[in-house]
Specification:
six-stranded parallel sheet; 9 helices; 6 strands
């Protein structure tokens, strides 16, 4: 570590919980019902974006009649929550990582593009809410990731300088946000994207969260 780390800020989807498949399926189901024909590869392009940004992104490319961003976004969110509540599981090594942060005396925060509804669904399902001292969502911000505001807000809520925080991310948009916030970064990419050149922007790259305690020196 190039600077003393005092806080670890986790992204949520794809880091704490394997919810990216739920998001992708929900987005495909809802958007394709509106007449789009999105493939999984296309849906992956918007990983890390706030859901209203996702809906707007696809509307700009494939406009559909009777556009209602809020209604469409809510349908997708409802589908994701249903899937999380039914089958949600923590990502490999997440509990060990949270325990390691606690042992090291590091503050723990959450900075996500997801809504507060999904945050609480995930924390309740995984029973990990007690680890976090700050929960920050980009849902009501002017800009979501890759804008750094949600990360800056989380650092501020923790009372730690952004440069003394390390962000744990699985998306390129999230890494851009954390880097712009002047944080150190760890990328834990989905296995099928691990060899993509874009992850070079992260300070560290890990195969799974179970390797984070060693990186932190636990």
């Amino acid at each position: 570590m190039s600077t003393k780390i005092k806080a670890v800020i986790f992204d949520m989807d794809g880091i704490l919980i394997d919810s990216e498949p739920a998001w992708q399926l929900a987005e495909q189901t809802v958007l394709n019902s509106l007449g789009l024909n999105l493939t999984l590869e296309q849906v992956e392009q918007t990983t890390g974006l706030r859901i209203d940004q996702v809906v707007s992104y696809w509307y700009q490319r494939f406009p559909w009649p009777h556009y209602d961003n809020t209604a469409t976004a809510n349908k997708i969110v409802n589908e994701v929550i249903a899937q999380i509540s039914a089958t949600g599981e923590p990502m490999f090594g997440v509990i060990d990582s949270l325990e390691a942060c606690k042992r090291l005396g590091l503050k723990i925060g959450l900075a996500t593009s997801s809504s507060s509804r999904i945050i609480h669904a995930v924390l309740d399902k995984l029973a990990i809410g007690h680890y976090f001292e700050a929960l920050e969502s980009a849902e009501n911000l002017a800009y979501g990731k890759p804008h750094p505001e949600v990360y800056l807000n989380c650092a501020n809520a923790l009372g730690i300088a952004p440069s003394q925080c390390i962000a744990i991310e699985d998306s390129f948009n999230g890494l851009i946000a954390a880097r712009a916030a002047t944080m150190q970064t760890v990328a834990i990419p989905a296995p099928h994207t691990v060899n993509q050149a874009k992850w070079v922007i992260a300070h560290h790259k890990l195969a799974h969260a179970g390797l984070l305690p060693e990186l932190l020196g636990a």
